Amino acid sequence: MKSKKVAIVGASGYSGEILVQLLLNHPHAELVAVTSRQNAGQTLAQVFPKFASHPKSKSLRFSEPKAEVLAKQADVVFLALPHGVAAEYAIPLLDAGAIVIDLSADFRLKSADIYKEFYAHDHPAPDLLKKSVYGLPEIYREQIKKSLLIASPGCYPTSILLPLIPLLKSGLIKSTGIIADSLSGVSGAGRKAETDYLFCECNESVRPYGVPKHRHLSEIEEQLSLAAKSQVQIQFTPHLIPVNRGILTTLYLAPEKHFSTETEMKSLGEKISACYKKFYGNEPFIRLLEGKNLPDTKNVIGTNICEIAWRLDARTGRLIVMSAEDNLVKGASGQAVQSMNIICGWPETAGLV
Amino acid sequence: MKSKKVAIVGASGYSGEILVQLLLNHPHAELVAVTSRQNAGQTLAQVFPKFASHPKSKSLRFSEPKAEVLAKQADVVFLALPHGVAAEYAIPLLDAGAIVIDLSADFRLKSADIYKEFYAHDHPAPDLLKKSVYGLPEIYREQIKKSLLIASPGCYPTSILLPLIPLLKSGLIKSTGIIADSLSGVSGAGRKAETDYLFCECNESVRPYGVPKHRHLSEIEEQLSLAAKSQVQIQFTPHLIPVNRGILTTLYLAPEKHFSTETEMKSLGEKISACYKKFYGNEPFIRLLEGKNLPDTKNVIGTNICEIAWRLDARTGRLIVMSAEDNLVKGASGQAVQSMNIICGWPETAGLV
Amino acid sequence: MKSKKVAIVGASGYSGEILVQLLLNHPHAELVAVTSRQNAGQTLAQVFPKFASHPKSKSLRFSEPKAEVLAKQADVVFLALPHGVAAEYAIPLLDAGAIVIDLSADFRLKSADIYKEFYAHDHPAPDLLKKSVYGLPEIYREQIKKSLLIASPGCYPTSILLPLIPLLKSGLIKSTGIIADSLSGVSGAGRKAETDYLFCECNESVRPYGVPKHRHLSEIEEQLSLAAKSQVQIQFTPHLIPVNRGILTTLYLAPEKHFSTETEMKSLGEKISACYKKFYGNEPFIRLLEGKNLPDTKNVIGTNICEIAWRLDARTGRLIVMSAEDNLVKGASGQAVQSMNIICGWPETAGLV
Amino acid sequence: MKSKKVAIVGASGYSGEILVQLLLNHPHAELVAVTSRQNAGQTLAQVFPKFASHPKSKSLRFSEPKAEVLAKQADVVFLALPHGVAAEYAIPLLDAGAIVIDLSADFRLKSADIYKEFYAHDHPAPDLLKKSVYGLPEIYREQIKKSLLIASPGCYPTSILLPLIPLLKSGLIKSTGIIADSLSGVSGAGRKAETDYLFCECNESVRPYGVPKHRHLSEIEEQLSLAAKSQVQIQFTPHLIPVNRGILTTLYLAPEKHFSTETEMKSLGEKISACYKKFYGNEPFIRLLEGKNLPDTKNVIGTNICEIAWRLDARTGRLIVMSAEDNLVKGASGQAVQSMNIICGWPETAGLV
User: Cα C66–C72–C73 angle (5° rounding)?
Assistant: First the structure.
């Protein structure tokens, strides 16, 4: 299988670090460049002592991020940059023929207006919004294959969209009244030196934030609307909990068809089960839980897997769906590598198991 | 102020430990007996090294729990026992004239049938259900004053009922469709030697459990129904998170009156604000958050305070209410002491600040 | 008892926060001023939501730190400032007649030369070094009574000096070859927005730092030398562990008298036990552990207590002494309040139990 | 490369779980049996939901541990059993021609008398003590190649022996007065339902234990004595800290040759550096830290790597050596797999990177 050269722009954050780890050990990708303004000149081993045992860690040095240089070095470039900055790199890289996999929010929305509403500045490259593909492989595998610009989904959106899209596409739930209650580990906030994310501020603490209008709502609702073929608005509440990694999402849903008897509940349950099996039965990175098992972030940490379980509540008539993922892997870097594998024609699980 | 003698039955669990701490330092209560089958004969200092600096810790010894003995020793007896066992002690203690404050679920429900439905055995003393008062002082202060048997509320119920009851009583929200999503620290599971609660099973883990029908639903729904004056059923999902103490609850509610314009939202907001101020403006243990503040368990740990904040979401038309409490204090032992203070005619905050 | 007005300069760090908590609830001290450049103008309730239920929290506002203003407002001023900055405030405050209790390292050393060696700049007020008293009440109670300038000890020094000084003064151990291995919670690093202390950098991590010459060595060795009446040099290794609060120190010591038989060991053990009882038997804030108990930070968190236990090792001929304290209370703010109580003639435990 | 069939006896504990993970993904070993009394009959997926995405997890079932059956199924058998029990399985398995890799302490000592002294019962198979090889590959690689019975080292011993043996063999340090201060994550206590290891008992707690004579001393001292060619006794203090995985050891050592000048220190430093490079410069699983780096457990978690750093202290004349490892990988299961790789003639890093 033909290997490709890859680069990471913004490799010193948490997503960047996981990308480095995955790409150092990828069977077909060759990591040729990592950039970081702050660490330019230092080796991988110096910035990340944990990678020091890898043969490449002492030769590969962080460089200043320069699009023109990167375009010459690499076939595939991952952008792990803040919103708004990523677009600046994507344009010249695409022009120079590179495949761009962007982990920021810059190309996730189809509408530049909604981008402005949620990110409070004009979109830096509205024309590219038509070209980008939302990098959720389980939903957009065919489009990803043919794309040169992947907008890799956010961590919260992944944990919400993967369990919801099959139900909406199958018409099993109403597209109104959806509630997503999410719990995220602290790495979701990035490696930023802010008081709020100090150990002593997070340990022995649980707190909601960004209520009621978190930025990720924009891409969640756009994707749900596409699945439901109607405008969807949801309620979304993120909470910060004291773990390094992991997102647990609990979804409160109204089945399209009312159920009250045991028979009706059983019948609906079979439909839900069949729906998930149809969509995800063969997906290597979705784990449909069976029996009494419920999702637990500790069972997915370090993997590219999203766990999904559901329960019908005969008392309230609701469907409760729960998911767990590693916010830095399936919720960020692992999923980005999965998209790269698809684009490059490699096995989708290459470097991810 | 006249002091009283108090005893704790089942003093070696987590709630028991907090009761010991609060009562050792209470200005009017004198702790005269602590019981524990397992630790009988040992001093407080031996069982709880952390209390070893208290003058009483070397003289006060754990004894076998015997109702007749306790009735002679103490004016007030706290029962920190498992469900089903508490009732066995309450009957003889009440007969002997003691005030009983029960931290178990045994006397929280008015209906023996619902007790059986949720706890899977016949209620051990159905006659007492009429005599007990649900020990939520902010709601039942007057009844507590005159009662001899307090059923101190559970930790989840406290975090859900305190924010909800004012809204239901004021008719500001619909009594249907209520969703309570709760996150609890591990001490909520008690000091039980079970694999599920080992450090390595809880640390770096987040997980839902008891979905969709947790036992606490029974008392939550009974109390909400009383407040709403109609039958209320809610959706309740507890999650286990890696902190020692604390519960964070997020409530998803439908305002009785639809709002869509800015003006309507402002007007509704003022009503909600006024409602909470009316009910809790003078409550020493409710903290209504203002401005941008949202509840954070770290701000209530070790206190008897419940924090409450709310947000209206113009996009979805919902009201989001969030609360935080220390599950072992306001959610258990602190609240029980608060009830004792009321019954005994002491300042309600005695020993709690 | 006559009350006094107190102020805290630098009240927004972790030590400052504990000082606020202790002084808000102190029976004889009245907190009249809190300063913080960053938070000037905001109320206590705004900066620390956890204090919002205290009646004073909405009236007391943070101000800019100005020595002349503080000198008029307060009888006692606590300085919770960085090294080097504290001295600037101490001079005018002392001139204006205030009692100054400094939590920084500025006045802990008797020698301006050693200060320069360890802190890398000239001492800002070398004359005051003669006037300051090292605020370890168990050792310097009489001197503290008469002092106007207290140099409150560091967190590591407290955990090392309290167990060592009695043994050195009694001549039970050699003053050479002492090793102190300490483990500290992350609050010891202060509320600084530095990447190293982010939740994800500390959680699931244990690491030594400052090896082999940590700044606290200077005051530790000066105090040990005074106790031993000879020049003492020790080995000290601090480690960072993922807890909010607490220091656990393990000391490796050589008994002055060799022991090899059971009888010799028993005899030496009795001397050690008697030594500690003589020094600390009546101390309210020292807990000498008995039987099989070993120190555990969770038993001292939130208290002003230092736990001490020891073991003789017949195999190696060594004495192992272990101590535990809350770095922010006995290791900082609680101990500072203890000194204030002594100076002001209040019960030494006032506001600390 | 010829593959082999492997079995794990006692696969449901923490070491067992890591063995399962490593062997499921090993390129040359085929996991054919896992045993557990408690879970017999259940699939791997049922007992460990985290492995549910592995193709084998639904076909491989836990069985009752029966030596005769295992001997027929597997070429290599890992024993992850309590001390004393492992020997019962080793005897028949060896008789039947299997390679046995034992993770318990049963075959780590050469002397049955010392075993009895430390483990308080007669050794169950003293004859086998001569045949077993201590499975520390960096030290006993040649012996491991030819052995059929590997006594895989304990977690604390590994973290102490790896940094010490080169120094002792090179005569750079004295063999007397060695102190090892170790900090271990809670998984070291095993998956045992004991109150001491509950989340709330370990979180926000740090404590020493087993002072002064921990069982692991026996194998540590036997191995050090072999390296030093003289009887070595050390001081060893383990501490429990709130992390899932990881051991950090700090060693206090006396260089054989006194140093006091800069030149002497530099010269000694070069010898230490050369010594470690000679022993470990080409070892894939030892990382000699350079520059300012100190060991940090977070940099080795999930890997088979042991990090080592050292500092000379000119003030005290001591050498401080620090090491970090994952107690479940290099300290247990990873190291056991490393030994298997050596015995089977596979690349030593197979399945470990």
Answer: 85
- Nearest one of D279, D310, D280 to D293, comparing CA atoms: D310
Judged by CB atoms closer than 8 Å, whether chains meet at A197 and C201 is answered as no
Helix (H, G, I), strand (E, B) or coil at C144: helix
Q: CATH 3.40.50.720 residue ranges in chain A?
A: 4-152+331-344
Residue C265 CA to residue C260 CA, distance in Å, equals 7
Distance between CA atoms of A260 and A248, rounded to whole angstroms?
A: 29
Task: Kindly indicate whether the ipTM for this predicted assembly is greater than 0.95, answering yes or no.
Answer: yes
Give C114-129 as a DSSP string. Answer: HHHHHHSS--S-GGGG
- What region, left, alpha or beta, does residue A352 occupy, with left being phi > 0 and alpha being psi -120 to 50 degrees? alpha
Is B155 a known active-site residue? yes
- Residue ranges of chain A that CATH labels 3.30.360.10: 156-327
**Alpha-carbon span B323 to B162, nearest angstrom:** 8
CB D159 within 8 A of CB D332: no
How buried is A270 (Cβ within 10 angstroms: 0-12 exposed, 13-18 middle, 19+ buried)?
exposed
Q: Is domain A156-327 annotated with CATH 3.30.360.10?
A: yes
CATH superfamily for A4-152+331-344 is NAD(P)-binding Rossmann-like Domain (3.40.50.720)
Spatial separation of the C-alpha atoms in residues A207 and A204, rounded to whole Å: 10
Those residues of chain D whose CB sits closer than 8 Å to some CB in chain C are 179, 181, 183, 201, 203-209, 211-213, 233-235, 237, 239, 241-246, 248, 250, 252, 294-298, 301, 311-313, 315-316, 318, 320, 322, 324
Q: Which residues contact B157 (CB under 8 A, 6 or more apart)?
A: B108, B216, B219, B220, B223
Using a cut of 0.90, tell me whether the model's pTM lies above it.
yes
CATH 3.40.50.720 residue spans of chain C: 4-153+331-344
Side-chain half-sphere CA neighbours of A143 within 13 A:
15
CATH class of D4-153+331-344: alpha beta
Residues 6 or more apart in contact with residue B26 via CB below 8 angstroms: B6, B337, B350, B351
| Class of the CATH-defined domain B156-328 | alpha beta
Nearest-angstrom CA–CA distance, D146 and D132: 10
| Contact state of C198 with A193 under an 8 Å Cβ cutoff | yes
> Tokens 């005290």 belong to which residue?
D316
Instruction: Please state the three-class secondary structure of B90-146 as a single string.
Output: HHHHHHCCCEEEECCCCCCCCCHHHHHHHHCCCCCCHHHHHCCEECCHHHHHHHHHC
| C201 contacts A198? CB cut-off 8 A | no
What does the alpha-carbon distance between residue B297 and residue A290 come to, in Å, rounded to a whole number?
A: 33
CA distance C113 to D48: 61
Q: What is the pLDDT along chain A (353 residues), one digit of tens a residue?
A: 789 999 999 999 999 999 999 999 999 999 999 999 999 999 999 999 999 999 999 999 999 999 999 999 999 999 999 998 999 999 999 999 999 999 999 999 999 999 999 999 999 899 999 999 999 999 999 999 999 999 999 999 999 999 999 999 999 999 999 999 999 999 999 999 999 999 999 999 999 999 998 999 999 999 999 999 999 999 999 999 999 999 999 999 999 999 989 999 999 999 999 999 999 999 999 999 989 999 999 999 999 999 999 999 999 999 999 999 999 999 999 999 999 999 999 999 999 98
